Amino acid sequence: MQDILNYINGQLIQPKSNLYIDNIAPATGKKIGSIPNSSAIDVNLAVEAAQAAFPTWASCGADQRSKILLKIADLLEKALPEFAQAESLDNGKTLKLASTVDIPRAVHNLRFYATAILHAHDEAYYTEPHALNYTRREPLGVVACISPWNLPLYLFTWKIAPALAAGCTVVAKPSEVTPLTAFMFAKICIEAGLPAGVLNIIHGEGAHTGQALVEHPDIEAVSFTGGTHTGQRIAALVAPKFKKLSLELGGKNPNIVFEDCDLEKAVKGSVLASFSNQGQICLCGSRIMVHQSIYEVFKEKFLAKAAALQVGNPQDPHVQVGAVVSEGHYHKILSYIDLAQKEGGKILLGGMPVQLEGDYSKGFFIAPTVIENLPYDCRTNQEEIFGPVVTIMPFESESEVLKYANSTKYGLAATIWTENLTRAHRVAHQIKSGIVWVNCWLLRDLRTPFGGMKESGVGREGGFEAIRFFTEEKNICIKL
Ligand code: TXE
Fold first, then answer.
1. Selecting from 3.40.605.10, 3.40.710.10, 3.90.950.20, 3.40.50.300, what CATH number does the domain 6-249+456-479 have?
2. 167 lines ligand 1 (CB under 6 A)
């Protein structure tokens, strides 16, 4: 049992609310500990600590901030096996994925921003003949970072690293569904000597703790990753207060396979894009569109590869598909599979829970599911399912597939498989999404802008974009 504590003003403490929620392991359905359900009083304490720490942290210099963040990254890297175990236990993802993707990426996020800040530069303008303008970027103050459950420590560090590097102090709230690695991370911050109050981590439910945090008058900005509906709610709360807001929301991403693709690569990449992390990545390619001339052959190869994925105990190194994150989410995914059938969809693969034995008999496992025969504009093809469920459909022409691809309210990512470079550029330019991958999926360079169009979000993370978000420009004009 791991009872989680808040991290406020450099200390691990119980919530003043004295309220707790159960932490359930999705692979077994069993309770593994308790989580504080922090109240507005706890949020206040965290914000006060962050406010008190801000002047020193903001002015200690990029070099100093960089050193501490690098130390945290080193300690996290050393503890990678324990963190990967905890992430797998808490989220249901495979230990292999947590060890090779989640935790290494968290280390990378910290190192990336710890060093990026050393290369940040300000602008200067000589106003001929009589003035000099220079523009400096000042950290905003206390900011809120709210992260989701699908890539818990990966997305948590993706937000706090640029905020801390830029000189802000932070009150962060990880998802109440997967709080474990953020709690362990607090211990590492203490060990690394992060000054008290610079980072505060409070736990609790979104509508309770999260809402109190975004509504707090001394929070200058909110960086949020989560569902579109929650993003809308947060935007409505903070807009009248003119707080800065960054939103990374859902996706319903097209995965477009042209007849001139490298078929083997397209099949392999599409399986990854469909079922990685049980399909619980906002970038997953959940709508597969295949040119009619290769539809049958692609489908056959894709189904064979997807059918070979082993679902089971996330700790088993041979397993590729673990449990989905929670009982509620499990039922949500199954209800979409029902809906797809009601909409006329034909289940080609999966379409049902996977019943395991022994310790895992009460876990939340769903078979990789492939559905065809659905129109592009039905609910199954328009709404984010966020599970191991994809649809597959044929298309005849570029204009037709662009219509399908751009038909949803989302615009996060898209993947195109083609060996024709001219076509790759032409189609990429016409797709309405913040990210387009050609002949690859989830190939990330942390310097690039990351984010979505339409209802997939507002603003961009990544590279210097994130540093710009957590700072505000001030222009100083000097008459010579
Ligand atoms: O996320 P929520 P949920 C999508 C996915 C999923 C759906 C709902 O489709 O099925 O969203 O997931 C905090 N004020 N994505 O409900 O609620 C919450 O505590 C402040 C896409 O689990 O958006 C958690 O820390 N905070 C996605 C975080 O918001 C609030 C990743 C995300 O939770 C709040 C996850 C409030 N009123 C789900 N309500 C992606 N873009 O990758 C909740 N929270």
1. 3.40.605.10
2. no
Q: Is the CB of 214 under 6 A from ligand 1?
A: yes
455 lines ligand 1 (CB under 6 A): no
Q: Which of 4, 178, 211, 230 to mutate for ligand 1's pocket (most ligand atoms within 8 Å of CB)?
A: 230
Q: For the beta carbon of residue 18, count every other beta carbon within 10 angstroms.
A: 9
| Nearest Cα residue to 283 out of 61, 462, 480 | 462
Evaluate the CA torsion angle 305, 365, 173, 205 in order and state its sign: positive
What ligand 1 atom has the least distance to the C-alpha of 384?
A: 9
% of the chain at pLDDT higher than 90:
99
Identify whether the C-beta of residue 121 lies closer than 8 Å to the C-beta of residue 63.
no
The DSSP symbol for 205 reads: -
Query: What is the token pair recorded at 214?
Result: 């975004």
Instruction: Note the Cα 427 to chain centre separation in Å.
Output: 26
Ligand 1: residue whose CA is nearest its atom 34: 206
Question: What is the per-residue pLDDT for 134?
Answer: 97
**In this predicted model, what pLDDT tens digit does every residue of 309-362 receive, in sequence order?**
999 999 999 999 999 999 999 999 999 999 999 999 999 999 999 999 999 999
Cα 206 to ligand 1 centroid, rounded to whole Å: 8
**CATH tag, 254-448:** 3.40.309.10
Evaluate: CB of 282 within 6 angstroms of ligand 1.
yes
> Which pLDDT value is given to residue 338?
98
List residues bridging with 246 in a β-sheet. 223
Q: Tell me, in angstroms, the distance from the centre of ligand 1 to residue 422's CA.
A: 38
Give, using CA atoms, the residue closest to atom 24 of ligand 1: 175
CB 70 within 8 A of CB 180: no
Domain ranges of the chain: 6-249+456-479, 254-448
Burial class from Cβ neighbours inside 10 Å (0-12, 13-18, 19+) for residue 369 reads buried
Q: Just list the catalytic residues.
A: 248, 282
- Name the burial class of residue 422, with classes exposed (0-12), middle (13-18) and buried (19+) by CB atoms within 10 angstroms of its CB: exposed
Contacts of 308 (CB under 8 A, 6+ apart): none
Distance from chain centroid for Cα 189? 22
Is the CB–ligand 1 distance for residue 230 below 6 Å? yes
Beta carbon of 234 within 6 Å of any ligand 1 atom: yes
User: Mind listing the pLDDT tens digit for each residue in 244-301?
Assistant: 999 999 999 999 999 999 999 999 999 999 999 999 999 999 999 999 999 999 999 9
Q: How confident is the model at residue 1 (pLDDT cuts 50, 70, 90)?
A: confident
pLDDT tens-digit map of 98-146: 999 999 999 999 999 999 999 999 999 999 999 999 999 999 999 999 9
Query: What spacing in Å lies between the alpha carbon of 65 and ligand 1's midpoint?
Result: 30
